[in-house]
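It is worth pausing here to work through a concrete case rather than discussing structure prediction in the abstract. The textbook approach is simple: state the sequence, then state the predicted structure, then interpret. We follow exactly that order.
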Amino acid sequence: MLKLAITGCMGRMGERIRELAFNDVDCKIVALIESPDRQGVPLAWHGIAVSRDIHAIKGADVLIDFTLPAPTMKNLEACLRHQVRMVIGTTGLSDAERAVIKAASDKLAIVQSTNMSVGVNLVFGLLKRMASALEGYNVSITETHHVHKKDAPSGTAKTMAEVIEGVTGGKVADIASVREGEVVGYHHVTFDGPADTLEISHNAKTRDMFASGALIAAKFLAKKDKGLFTMQEVLGLD
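Step two, the predicted structure:
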Protein backbone atom coordinates (compact mmCIF):
# COMPACT_ATOMS: atom_id res chain seq x y z
CA MET A 1 0.00 0.00 0.00
CA LEU A 2 1.28 3.46 -0.95
CA LYS A 3 2.07 5.67 2.05
CA LEU A 4 1.08 9.16 0.97
CA ALA A 5 1.82 12.66 2.28
CA ILE A 6 -0.08 15.74 1.05
CA THR A 7 0.96 19.37 1.40
CA GLY A 8 -1.51 22.23 1.12
CA CYS A 9 -4.00 19.68 2.37
CA MET A 10 -6.73 22.23 3.17
CA GLY A 11 -6.49 24.13 -0.12
CA ARG A 12 -8.69 23.65 -3.17
CA MET A 13 -6.49 20.97 -4.71
CA GLY A 14 -5.35 19.49 -1.41
CA GLU A 15 -8.95 18.88 -0.38
CA ARG A 16 -9.72 16.86 -3.50
CA ILE A 17 -6.46 14.90 -3.34
CA ARG A 18 -7.01 13.88 0.29
CA GLU A 19 -10.64 12.93 -0.38
CA LEU A 20 -9.76 10.70 -3.34
CA ALA A 21 -6.72 9.23 -1.60
CA PHE A 22 -8.72 8.50 1.56
CA ASN A 23 -11.16 6.43 -0.52
CA ASP A 24 -8.47 4.69 -2.57
CA VAL A 25 -7.81 1.15 -1.29
CA ASP A 26 -4.26 1.30 -2.64
CA CYS A 27 -3.33 4.44 -0.67
CA LYS A 28 -2.83 5.27 2.99
CA ILE A 29 -2.48 8.91 4.00
CA VAL A 30 0.31 9.07 6.59
CA ALA A 31 0.86 12.85 6.69
CA LEU A 32 -1.24 15.94 6.05
CA ILE A 33 0.68 19.23 6.03
CA GLU A 34 -0.61 22.79 5.86
CA SER A 35 1.10 26.18 5.88
CA PRO A 36 1.61 27.87 9.27
CA ASP A 37 0.02 30.97 7.73
CA ARG A 38 -3.30 29.35 6.86
CA GLN A 39 -6.12 30.10 9.28
CA GLY A 40 -8.86 27.76 10.48
CA VAL A 41 -6.93 24.53 10.03
CA PRO A 42 -8.20 21.60 12.14
CA LEU A 43 -5.85 19.56 14.30
CA ALA A 44 -6.89 16.39 12.50
CA TRP A 45 -8.95 15.12 9.59
CA HIS A 46 -10.55 11.66 9.78
CA GLY A 47 -8.15 10.85 12.61
CA ILE A 48 -5.06 11.91 10.63
CA ALA A 49 -3.09 14.71 12.28
CA VAL A 50 -2.71 17.93 10.29
CA SER A 51 0.83 19.19 10.80
CA ARG A 52 2.43 22.58 10.19
CA ASP A 53 5.84 20.92 9.92
CA ILE A 54 6.94 19.62 6.51
CA HIS A 55 9.21 17.08 8.20
CA ALA A 56 6.07 15.17 9.17
CA ILE A 57 6.49 13.55 5.73
CA LYS A 58 9.23 11.32 7.14
CA GLY A 59 8.30 7.68 6.49
CA ALA A 60 6.00 8.45 3.54
CA ASP A 61 6.62 6.91 0.13
CA VAL A 62 5.45 9.91 -1.90
CA LEU A 63 4.59 13.56 -1.24
CA ILE A 64 2.01 15.28 -3.47
CA ASP A 65 2.61 19.02 -3.64
CA PHE A 66 0.21 21.54 -5.23
CA THR A 67 1.26 24.73 -3.46
CA LEU A 68 3.34 27.73 -4.56
CA PRO A 69 6.91 27.91 -5.89
CA ALA A 70 8.60 29.03 -2.65
CA PRO A 71 7.05 26.35 -0.37
CA THR A 72 7.48 23.73 -3.10
CA MET A 73 11.23 24.32 -3.09
CA LYS A 74 11.35 24.01 0.71
CA ASN A 75 9.27 20.84 0.49
CA LEU A 76 11.71 19.47 -2.08
CA GLU A 77 14.56 19.95 0.41
CA ALA A 78 12.60 17.94 2.99
CA CYS A 79 11.91 15.19 0.45
CA LEU A 80 15.61 14.93 -0.31
CA ARG A 81 16.43 14.77 3.40
CA HIS A 82 13.89 12.03 4.11
CA GLN A 83 14.08 10.25 0.71
CA VAL A 84 10.41 10.78 -0.06
CA ARG A 85 9.47 10.71 -3.73
CA MET A 86 7.61 13.79 -4.96
CA VAL A 87 4.72 14.67 -7.27
CA ILE A 88 4.90 18.38 -8.10
CA GLY A 89 1.79 20.02 -9.55
CA THR A 90 2.81 23.56 -8.59
CA THR A 91 2.75 26.04 -11.47
CA GLY A 92 4.60 29.33 -11.93
CA LEU A 93 8.03 27.78 -11.30
CA SER A 94 10.98 29.76 -12.61
CA ASP A 95 13.68 28.31 -14.86
CA ALA A 96 16.04 28.35 -11.87
CA GLU A 97 13.55 26.44 -9.71
CA ARG A 98 12.98 23.87 -12.45
CA ALA A 99 16.75 23.44 -12.66
CA VAL A 100 16.87 22.70 -8.91
CA ILE A 101 14.11 20.10 -9.36
CA LYS A 102 16.04 18.52 -12.23
CA ALA A 103 19.19 18.32 -10.11
CA ALA A 104 17.23 16.77 -7.22
CA SER A 105 15.94 14.05 -9.54
CA ASP A 106 19.48 12.64 -9.69
CA LYS A 107 18.81 11.43 -6.15
CA LEU A 108 15.02 11.27 -6.01
CA ALA A 109 12.13 10.11 -8.19
CA ILE A 110 9.95 13.10 -9.16
CA VAL A 111 6.96 13.67 -11.41
CA GLN A 112 6.65 17.35 -12.32
CA SER A 113 3.89 18.60 -14.59
CA THR A 114 1.92 21.79 -15.14
CA ASN A 115 -1.20 19.66 -15.52
CA MET A 116 -1.86 16.20 -14.09
CA SER A 117 -5.09 15.64 -16.03
CA VAL A 118 -5.23 12.62 -18.35
CA GLY A 119 -7.42 14.59 -20.76
CA VAL A 120 -5.11 17.59 -20.92
CA ASN A 121 -2.11 15.36 -21.53
CA LEU A 122 -3.97 13.78 -24.43
CA VAL A 123 -4.53 17.32 -25.76
CA PHE A 124 -0.77 17.98 -25.52
CA GLY A 125 -0.23 15.01 -27.84
CA LEU A 126 -2.91 16.21 -30.27
CA LEU A 127 -1.38 19.70 -30.36
CA LYS A 128 1.97 18.19 -31.30
CA ARG A 129 0.38 16.39 -34.26
CA MET A 130 -1.61 19.46 -35.31
CA ALA A 131 1.44 21.71 -35.21
CA SER A 132 3.31 19.24 -37.39
CA ALA A 133 0.52 19.00 -39.98
CA LEU A 134 -0.58 22.65 -40.06
CA GLU A 135 2.59 24.37 -41.18
CA GLY A 136 2.31 28.14 -41.46
CA TYR A 137 -0.88 28.44 -39.41
CA ASN A 138 -1.13 31.22 -36.83
CA VAL A 139 -1.63 29.84 -33.34
CA SER A 140 -3.38 31.55 -30.43
CA ILE A 141 -4.20 30.28 -26.95
CA THR A 142 -6.81 31.51 -24.48
CA GLU A 143 -6.91 30.22 -20.90
CA THR A 144 -9.57 31.02 -18.30
CA HIS A 145 -9.28 30.33 -14.56
CA HIS A 146 -10.78 31.38 -11.23
CA VAL A 147 -9.94 34.80 -9.78
CA HIS A 148 -7.73 33.25 -7.06
CA LYS A 149 -5.13 31.87 -9.49
CA LYS A 150 -1.79 33.58 -8.93
CA ASP A 151 0.11 32.94 -12.17
CA ALA A 152 -0.72 34.03 -15.71
CA PRO A 153 -0.55 32.62 -18.28
CA SER A 154 -1.36 29.30 -16.69
CA GLY A 155 1.27 26.60 -16.58
CA THR A 156 -0.90 24.50 -18.90
CA ALA A 157 -1.08 27.29 -21.49
CA LYS A 158 2.69 27.68 -21.32
CA THR A 159 3.15 23.94 -21.84
CA MET A 160 0.76 24.01 -24.79
CA ALA A 161 2.84 26.79 -26.33
CA GLU A 162 6.08 24.89 -25.65
CA VAL A 163 4.68 21.75 -27.32
CA ILE A 164 3.71 23.71 -30.43
CA GLU A 165 6.96 25.69 -30.51
CA GLY A 166 8.97 22.50 -30.20
CA VAL A 167 7.47 21.35 -33.51
CA THR A 168 7.29 24.61 -35.47
CA GLY A 169 10.41 26.33 -34.18
CA GLY A 170 8.36 29.53 -34.03
CA LYS A 171 6.91 31.47 -31.14
CA VAL A 172 3.31 31.38 -29.92
CA ALA A 173 3.04 35.08 -29.15
CA ASP A 174 -0.72 35.26 -28.58
CA ILE A 175 -1.62 33.81 -25.16
CA ALA A 176 -4.61 35.47 -23.48
CA SER A 177 -5.41 34.99 -19.78
CA VAL A 178 -8.86 35.53 -18.28
CA ARG A 179 -9.63 35.45 -14.56
CA GLU A 180 -13.28 35.22 -13.59
CA GLY A 181 -15.49 33.63 -10.95
CA GLU A 182 -14.61 30.12 -9.85
CA VAL A 183 -13.67 28.64 -13.25
CA VAL A 184 -11.62 25.49 -12.63
CA GLY A 185 -9.78 25.72 -15.93
CA TYR A 186 -10.58 26.23 -19.61
CA HIS A 187 -8.02 26.16 -22.45
CA HIS A 188 -8.75 26.94 -26.09
CA VAL A 189 -6.20 26.70 -28.91
CA THR A 190 -6.82 28.05 -32.41
CA PHE A 191 -4.86 27.20 -35.57
CA ASP A 192 -5.82 29.82 -38.12
CA GLY A 193 -4.83 29.29 -41.76
CA PRO A 194 -5.64 30.98 -45.06
CA ALA A 195 -8.26 28.40 -46.01
CA ASP A 196 -9.59 27.12 -42.71
CA THR A 197 -9.48 27.38 -38.93
CA LEU A 198 -9.05 24.48 -36.50
CA GLU A 199 -9.81 24.70 -32.80
CA ILE A 200 -9.24 22.40 -29.85
CA SER A 201 -10.33 23.04 -26.29
CA HIS A 202 -10.41 21.45 -22.86
CA ASN A 203 -12.82 22.33 -20.07
CA ALA A 204 -12.11 21.19 -16.52
CA LYS A 205 -15.40 20.54 -14.73
CA THR A 206 -13.95 19.68 -11.33
CA ARG A 207 -10.51 19.48 -9.72
CA ASP A 208 -10.93 15.73 -9.41
CA MET A 209 -9.30 15.30 -12.83
CA PHE A 210 -6.10 16.87 -11.49
CA ALA A 211 -6.31 15.01 -8.18
CA SER A 212 -6.87 11.60 -9.79
CA GLY A 213 -3.95 12.25 -12.14
CA ALA A 214 -1.74 13.13 -9.17
CA LEU A 215 -2.61 9.80 -7.54
CA ILE A 216 -1.76 7.97 -10.77
CA ALA A 217 1.59 9.78 -10.76
CA ALA A 218 2.21 8.89 -7.11
CA LYS A 219 1.58 5.19 -7.79
CA PHE A 220 3.91 5.37 -10.80
CA LEU A 221 6.69 6.77 -8.59
CA ALA A 222 6.36 3.93 -6.09
CA LYS A 223 8.36 1.79 -8.51
CA LYS A 224 11.03 4.41 -9.23
CA ASP A 225 14.19 5.24 -7.28
CA LYS A 226 15.25 8.41 -9.08
CA GLY A 227 14.64 10.45 -12.22
CA LEU A 228 12.44 13.30 -13.44
CA PHE A 229 9.25 12.20 -15.19
CA THR A 230 6.41 13.97 -16.99
CA MET A 231 2.73 12.99 -17.01
CA GLN A 232 3.21 12.02 -20.65
CA GLU A 233 5.66 9.37 -19.43
CA VAL A 234 3.45 8.38 -16.50
CA LEU A 235 0.53 7.76 -18.89
CA GLY A 236 2.64 6.07 -21.56
CA LEU A 237 1.93 8.83 -24.09
CA ASP A 238 5.53 9.89 -24.69
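Step three, interpretation. The helical segments are 12-22, 69-82, 95-104, 118-133, 155-168, 208-221, 231-234. The radius of gyration is 18 Å.
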